[in-house]
Amino acid sequence: MRGALERIEMAVAAGADWVQIREKDLSARGLFELARSALEATRGRAALVVVNDRLDVALAAGAGGVHLGGESLSARDVVRWCRGGNAPQGFRVGVSCHSADDLREAERAGADYALFGPIFDSPAKRKFGAPQGIGKLAEACASVRMPVIAIGGVDVSNAGACLRAGAAGIAAIRMFQDVSDAAELAETVARLRSAGKQA
Prior knowledge:
Largest sheet: 7 strands, parallel
Radius of gyration: 16 Å
Mean pLDDT: 90
Number of strands: 7
Strand content: 15-25%
Number of domains: 1
CATH architecture: Alpha-Beta Barrel
Structural class: alpha/beta
CATH superfamily: Aldolase class I
Low-confidence stretches: none
Helix content: 40-55%
């Protein structure tokens, strides 16, 4: 867990504005402790902390939202429960989507945002099928009003293409894990922000 927290601290210090806690092997207690530590690392910064799958942990830790995957609770049920006064105002519910139909269903359910992909080849996302590509990303973004975040094989060389296609942002795991130190991570985030300005 310490390694994950160090990466989070480095990313937030470098200017990342979103942290998604997705440590699937941790117990509920371990996930809660990591989420609380991540929130402490982001204190005074604009970074949002979101917990994967575990609505209970996200709420108990005081996270800014929960992200739902294919095996999570129904987005419609989670949104209804949260909007029924059971979650703090501004608590976000996100959904992983792999098609335009998934996106439209997530939007109808009331999700605040969606991760869409994989856009490019990514070892972690191959189980979700062939890469969607920029064309499918553009179609997907145009099919809904909610923010769509591109994921899967996204790096500094192709992030700009994702943003030009209509993505509200990009998400990545390997790109942040592969950097060797804080200085390299800060440079990576700066290049991503530059790509966003040029999109």
